Amino acid sequence: MSLWVDRYRPKSLGVLDYHKEQASQLKNLVKQGDFPHLLVYGPSGAGKKTRVTCLLRELYGPSVEKLRMESVSITTPSGKKLDVKTISSNYHIEVNPSDAGIYDRCVVMELVKNAAQTHQLDPSGQRDFKVVVLTEVDSLSVDAQHALRRTMEKYVATCRLILISNSTSRVIPAIRSRCLGVRVAAPTSDQIVSILQMVCKKEGLTLPLELAKKIVDKSERNLRLALLMCESCKVQETPLQDKQEPILPQWQVFLRETARTIMHEQSPKQLMEVRGRLYELLCHNIPIQMIFKGLLKELVSNCDMRLKAAVVEEAAFFEHRVHQGNKGIFHLEAFVAKFMCIYKKFMEDSVIDMF
Amino acid sequence: MDEDYPTPDEEFEMMYADEMEMLNEMEDDFDEPPLKPSAPPTVRRSLNFAGSSASQKDIISSTPSVSSTPAEKVDDLPITSTAPYASSSSSRKRTLDDIFGDIDDIELEEANEKDGHLSKKSCQKLSGDPLFFLDEDINAEPSDHVKEIELIEKINALRKKAFLECHQGQATGSPASLKLKESNTLTKGVPKWPFVSVTSELGDRVYIRVRSDDYLDEEIERVSHKTDSGGLLKNQFSTLKDEALKLLEKRQEAIVAAQEAEIAALMAPDGETSAGTDTDNLWVVKYKPSAYAELLSEESVNRTMLHWLKLWDKVVFNRERKVAVKPKEAKKENRFQKKPFGQVMTDELDEHGRPQYKMVLLCGPPGLGKTTLAHMVAKLAGYNVVEVNASDDRTPEAFHTQLQAATQMKAVMGKDPRPNCLVLDEIDGAPAASIETLIKFVLGKDVGKGRGKKKGNAGVLKRPVICICNDAYVPALRTLRQNAFVLHFPPTGSERLAFRLMTIARKQNIKTDMGAMLALCEKTQNDIRSCLSLLHYFKSQNKPVRLSDIHQSSVGQKDVQKGLFSVWQEVFQIRRSTGAFTEAATAAATKNTNSTPAVKRADTSIASRIQRVLSIVQSHGDYNRLAQGVFENYLNMKLRDSSLNGLVKGLDWFSTTDLLNTEILSSQNYILMPYMSYAFAVWHVLFAGLSWPKIQYPNTAYEVSVKEGHAKQTVAELMKGMPPSIKVNCSESQLVNEVLPLLLEIIVPNFRPVSQQLYSSQEKKDLCNLVSIMIDYNLTYVQERTPEGNYVCNLDPNIEEVVHFGGSKPSRALTYGTKQLVAREIDVEKMRRFEMMALSSQPNEPKDKIKSKSSENQLPSVDISSNGNSDTTGNKKSPPLPNHLRKLRAKPVLKEIQTKDFFGRIVEISLSPSTVKANTEAQLKGDVWFHFKEGFNNAVRKTIRIGDLL
Prior knowledge:
The complex is a heterodimer of chains A (355) and B (950).
Chain A: H1 4-7, H2 20-31, E1 38-41, H3 48-60, E2 68-75, E3 81-88, E4 92-95, H4 104-117, E5 130-134, H5 142-154, E6 159-165, H6 173-178, E7 180-183, H7 189-202, H8 209-219, H9 223-236, H10 250-264, H11 268-283, H12 288-301, H13 305-324, H14 328-354
Helix pairs in contact in A: 2-3, 4-5, 7-8, 8-9, 10-11, 10-12, 11-14, 12-13, 13-14
Chain B: H1 8-15, H2 17-35, H3 41-52, H4 63-67, H5 71-75, H6 82-100, H7 104-115, H8 119-127, H9 133-140, H10 146-169, H11 175-185, E1 186-187, E2 195-199, E3 205-209, H12 213-227, H13 237-267, H14 271-277, H15 283-286, H16 299-311, H17 313-316, H18 322-325, H19 327-333, E4 359-363, H20 370-380, E5 384-388, H21 396-408, E6 420-424, H22 432-443, H23 451-455, E7 465-469, H24 478-483, E8 484-488, H25 494-508, H26 514-523, H27 528-541, H28 547-552, H29 564-572, H30 580-594, H31 606-620, H32 623-633, H33 645-667, H34 678-687, H35 700-720, H36 724-727, H37 732-746, H38 761-776, E9 780-785, E10 791-796, H39 799-803, H40 816-841, H41 844-854, H42 860-865, H43 869-877, H44 913-925, E11 928-930, E12 940-942, H45 946-949
Keywords (chain B): ATP-binding, Cell cycle, DNA replication, DNA-binding, Nucleotide-binding, Nucleus
GO cellular component, one term (chain B): nucleus
Subcellular location (chain B): Nucleus
């Protein structure tokens, strides 16, 4: 009894709902008894982690699900002490190195290396290697990734790394070439609909197709989001209705309103208001990349076709600068101002053209 | 004298009596050399009365007063020569009067005070016939100085000689009658005629007759008639005058000749050598003000300083202040106050006779003459200046010794054993510990490592301390500021400074004009030192100084750091005609770059503005904070930018600045640092307006980061309590972006507002589900009290704050009662789960324990029956005794007790195992058991599980 997302999460490779071919390939990989480092990538809510968990279960059996949380204290070269939370079983350890912020390199150097160096304690275990799962690899700094390179090669006898990231673009090629890439694509709309209906059936509900499609549409093929939305719909109105509107996360609504504010008027005063809203978003820990993406999507959808390319180009330019720089708000506002400028010019030109 | 309230003039006089006195004294000291040939002050003084009685019968009457001045002055001056200078001295007097008001009496008083002859002058004045005190003078004056006696004798001789001459030349007016009159004017007993009583230093009291004006006139006439013949002088007055004029002319000529020679030398091609000769003496030293009146600093500051120093007179010189001299006014006026700057300096002295503030803190930008003022004033007030500056050792220990040396000792050797005045220059650079030492010392809290205790009073500061600093708001000076009288130095007036520079230039034969000097003042921001240095530099180049030269020269520009707000203001505001300097700087700049004739552009030209902003920003240096300030304020400026191109450009520069900064910080590439400042020039050009900008301190970024940190912490707290099986599937970002917003919608199911017992099965199921979800995500409700006194149930950790935007309330929410119900259910469920965990882990544990214990804890009966092989196995299988059934017992003595029957055969004790087993089983199965008389006071026990209660 818990959230549907957690309750109906498949536990083994055999019962996965989609990408079954890939699942069977993974199964075969495990059957070989050995497998290379893996780089699992795909969009959020596609089931990467589920797949990795299933793989681990396939490797070590159900006892891998007995998880415990540990806090490892790491001392940085500058003498600062960091606490990094890890989740581990007897056979594997899972770390999110980006928790340590700019000290992620130390996590890789100390924690991962340590885990990799020590042999499996229980020789009666099925495998003579253990698995280190690193999540959110794309936010790993370049230094940390370089630190990972040698570790991957040197301790291949005792450990396998499974890297999980949203995209490979921020993983350095040296790492990419050392891993077997496993792309977990987002499920198709139909797959999500069928999953939603299956879950509802198990819950003793009937999900109208209309609502299911709406949910799929709003969730942008993010299965986790879709399931959460579905459950929230159920809480809203118990026999699910056709005309029900699935609830969006509040920050997305807020971002949409912000985009509307930008479209509404282009002036320094308006820019000031937009800045306030952007600050509000940053306050709520919304990653700046998500803000960029959300804004761009909303803005582009309301733009004339001729403008779209230019706007996307600007967004890409400033989003890149966000990664290079430190102060996100500068670049974010620069993008907004740029858009305002382009948009205003376009509107004025079109007004002139009319006469 | 009888007026109760002083007129404003008098008041002023009283207020500044000290300073006046000092000024005059100084006038005497410093102006003496140049004035000597024309009018020695001593003579002048005597001639004052002489003036009233026109030409005197006996000029020697002035000699007694001469005796009150240093001897040598009398010596080198022929008494006869006084007359010609009378006019000149009085004219000089007038100018002095013009400057300082009526200072005659002060002068006199001062003289009196100096010599301790209080009475004499006033007597003279009153009587109009000063003859009388000649004798008294000789009597009264403690003639400890041989020289003085000699002098008096000399004077007497001269007088006799004059008398003789008088008598020979003209036999009118018998000295006898004069003498008679004299005796009438002065008695030692109380006379019958109107009188003024005068007490001499030794306590002798004499009474002087007060005559009516008519009598005086009569007397004057009489005397003047007598002297009319001019027999007093050996030569004729006219011849004397001619001689004097000739002498003066000669001297003038000599001076002119010397100057001409000097000019010639300068103009000559080998002028460099002459210029080079005076390089060893900096102009700052050379043209240091030599008199109080020459100080360029603000008059009020100077006066306050002097006033404060004079307050020390009581303790340092053991000299009463003016209060004693003017007892009448003093009574009413000894508490007058001046309010020069915020702080009030009172004239009240503490129990040691010291002023209220023991220190003065002079603060102001460099080059205003703070040190000069301190030295000058201290010297004026009769102190020996002991200076401690940044070049000295200023560790607390060294500082302490220096302090003690300066304030408690004085020079034994050397010609002037004057008391010390401590001047602590550049104190803002001293270590905080040293300043602490200073304050402790000054306030008398210093125990001085045992030494101070010895004398008891030794710790009391008895000398003035003047501290000088550039920035009074240095953290180290905080306590000092509270304990010292803070004098802020206002900038010197440009005109005054320029005028002085002109004088100096004239002296140095630099050809220049007032405009150039004013520009120089502006350029150096009225820094006297740099003005002089610059002038010196021009002099060494040996060519006329013109306005353009000053603008073109790159020297003399000061690098002054401005406050954050003033920098932002510079960025956002276009300066209107800031003066000649910037204007011409532009001209110079254009001249340098374009090599076109310097056309005077308007001050608001872009180039000059950029130049200005750049220099200000660069001198500040904290680009990051400056940029943040510009960022948070630029949108509030009045921007006339319809196309928004300016905004885009400006923001582009913001993002570039950020990139630069990141690069500098991450790779320590400080070579890029200079490029940071150019963004400000762009922003200035884009955003600056003419109106006064309203600038707010940029704290939005900080607030945002605080809020962000708070949200992060909330999420971290949430994640800490999540079970690993849930946590493994959601990272922090996923939690924030996807799970939490919807989770908040999910945990608000519909419950009817009825008692829990009346819930339908569906509701019960929902509640159960809700509780399990909330436990999974480590959520619960806590009761909190709002400031209004209401109780509310909030989520803990309060993720609502993280999820909701702009204070928007969730559309649906549980009622207060339901939330409480849920919270209770969560607690109950947590307990249940905990017990379940405990139960599920129990079966393993006891088994292991008992296994290990069974070997040593076996019942004796078993031991006994261990002989019977069949029993042991059965016993092992029997369920182990729980803890509460076990008893402590002594280790059984292993002794073969074999019961034998009568015939000596061993009897087999048949202990049926089944009964034993049944017994223990019965014991275990029962929930209630008791021990009887076994030392337990709570004899009856029962196992109760949480599950049974719930």
